[in-house]
Amino acid sequence: xxxxxxxxxxxxxxxxxxxxxxxxxxxxxxxxxxxxxxxxxxxxxxxxxxxxxxxxxxxxxxxxxxxxxxxxxxxxxxxxxxxxxxxxxxxxxxxxxxxxxxxxxxxxxxxxxxxxxxxxxxxxxxxxxxxxxxxxxxxxxxxxxxxxxxxxxxxxxxxxxxxxxxxxxxxxxxxxxxxxxxxxxxxxxxxxxxxxxxxxxxxxxxxxxxxxxxxxxxxxxxxxxxxxxxxxxxxxxxxxxxxxxxxxxxxxxxxxxxxxxxxxxxxxxxxxxxxxxxxxxxxxxxxxxxxxxxxxxxxxxxxxxxxxxxxxxxxxxxxxxxxxxxxxxxxxxxxxxxxxxxxxxxxxxxxxxxxxxxxxxxxxxxxxxxxxxxxxxxxxxxxxxxxxxxxxxxxxxxxxxxxxxxxxxxxxxxxxxxxxxxxxxxxxxxxxxxxxxxxxxxxxxxxxxxxxxxxxxxxxxxxxxxxxxxxxxxxxxxxxxxxxxxxxxxxxxxxxxxxxxxxxxxxxxxxx
Length: 512
Ligand code: FES
Hints:
This protein is α+β, with helices and mostly antiparallel strands. The protein has helices at 47-58, 91-123, 142-157, 188-201, 249-252, 310-324, 364-379, 402-417; strands spanning 37-43, 63-66, 82-83, 131-139, 163-165, 176-185, 205-207, 214-218, 221-226, 229-238, 253-265, 274-276, 283-290, 293-304, 327-341, 347-351, 354-358, 435-441, 444-450, 456-459, 471-473, 478-480, 487-488, 494-496. The strands form four sheets. Strands 3, 4, 5, 6, 11, 12, 13, 14 and 15 form a nine-stranded mixed sheet that branches. Strands 1, 2, 7, 8, 9, 10, 16 and 17 form an eight-stranded mixed sheet that branches.
């Protein structure tokens, strides 16, 4: 579904998401005054950064939002844009790790995030296809019935409605379902652009194509460096998922890729609700009309970034949807990144001199929005009931989250094992056009990509973040790091942090 990359909003992969379709970027200021000390510098132009910038600018702060690429380049252009009152970490799980009060605060945050989105749409009159829908979750096995009961019990304990039903509008055989009223969906980039316009009208500044390399504090002023430019601010928010560098988030958040297909059906069997199964990894279904055409959006098959094969993930997703729906065509296929927090709840707050918000799991729309409110309250010296529970420096036992312990073990494994993975038979010559692989040339490892014209793009495969070896993502045409999720394009440019420096280019001539 290519519509001409230069006319649309860019994102961090070669596949186009339907949100980019027909949308042109909003022109932004191309300069920021290096002499000005801004009240708040916001780094990252997705839903979290833009909502924060808008709130703080409206509160009378002089804000500068800086984005390494263009507004919406990261996950906001690749989300499947579900707006729910329940979350991937169930309230039952939250209760077991954080007690009743913690679970209630988590539920309040998710709900408040939802309310912020609704309020912004109303205030700024944002035409973003916002629609209230029912959500269904269904169980296919006995074990999943028990999970469903836990989900419902947890929701009721935090005061949310959850009703059992036999009638889930899905052609997948199932034993039981639950329905939640008053959930929603929207077009995330139209929403983001609505916020951006509001922020601009309030006097907020945006600077794109500017990657911040480092932030240091001198005499209580934050100095944010980008190449030879320095920007000054009293406070800094990192709204870039995990902040750059090796931080506690390198050990507390695991990066995941999630896959989505936009499918046209031969019949009218499009679901009128948001529907989720309980498989591991899970699938979801919803319908969206894009440029007058109805699409079934089917997502899932998530896996840790840089681990499994993205081509297989798409193929399996497509097989799955074809099994249950009469597919006329698959018009969109794209993947996106999110971060799972080690103990189940997001990290939102102040740590090591900066403000940050990350670990949203698959609930970035609501948690990104409430993060803006929490960070704004902290910066404005207002009390927030969420400060403690979401504190990035909290120390929680991670019992019951064994999966996450495994994630950290994975990092150590990749750091060592990937260095020995290349076989002697791997060679540049064997690469077909359009494919990439880490190969060994004269005893040196090379991340080699041969483009469609046969030209070789050769990089040092050692990730600039902490030294793991990157893996080829043949779908989004990127090099993805299996350790903390940094991603690089075919020429080594950073697509996603926590790396801030690109992969080093190697002269192709020396190893052909
Ligand atoms: Fe940490 Fe690559 S992202 S080593």
